[in-house]
Amino acid sequence: MITINKLLVLLFSIFSIGLLTYSFFLSYESQVYRLITYYDFALCIYFLYDFLKQLFSEENKWRYFYTVGWLDFISSIPVITEFRVLRFIRVIRVIKIIRSIRTLIKFISQNKKESLFGFIVFLVVVSIVITSTAVLYFEKDVGNITTAEDALWWTFITITTVGYGDYYPVTGFGKLAASFLIATGIGFFGAVISFVTDKVNSIKSNP
């Protein structure tokens, strides 16, 4: 059965494969690699949640685990330098969902609002990862955003439009990325308010 969660799992699985591929070109000691491992860990928590949800919803849990469940479980393991090649098992997860592409398209057409919100969530996460990674890459030698932790904190206060000012980009590209991230945050919070309002109204109209 296709759900908005399955749609997000598909999108994030494809994105995580791209992150993993990029990480192969980075030094293990680099701060950019460290930042990517943080984001990968967050995605793994989401994938693990999806695995556990699927496991407990199955009537025959052992059958699920020994057929495809173990693949979902392995793909939920965070990046470990010695075993990170195993993460390409996520490709199987993607193929498994894409095989039901017709059902997926039907779900999107019948659940436009939920699907749109899912795509918005995906795009916001992608924007966060790409902008923070790019800012760290360009700022680490010239600005005060020099570590993965600095980049994470800067990203959080920027997308929430708080802007403490303790960390800030000094390059032209960094400032452009910050502007884009602020706009993304404003748009996302507006979408969340609209989505929640719509859900509350639907509950009121269907007591």
UniProtKB/TrEMBL annotation:
It comes from Psychroflexus planctonicus. The keyword Ion transport applies. Keywords: Ion channel, Ion transport, Membrane, Potassium, Potassium channel, Potassium transport, Transmembrane, Transmembrane helix, Transport, Voltage-gated channel. This is Ion transporter. Residues 7-205 form the Ion transport domain. It is found in: Membrane. It is a multi-pass membrane protein. Its main location: membrane. The chain crosses the membrane at residues 7-26, 32-52, 64-81, 116-139, 151-170, 176-196. It comes from the Bacteria.
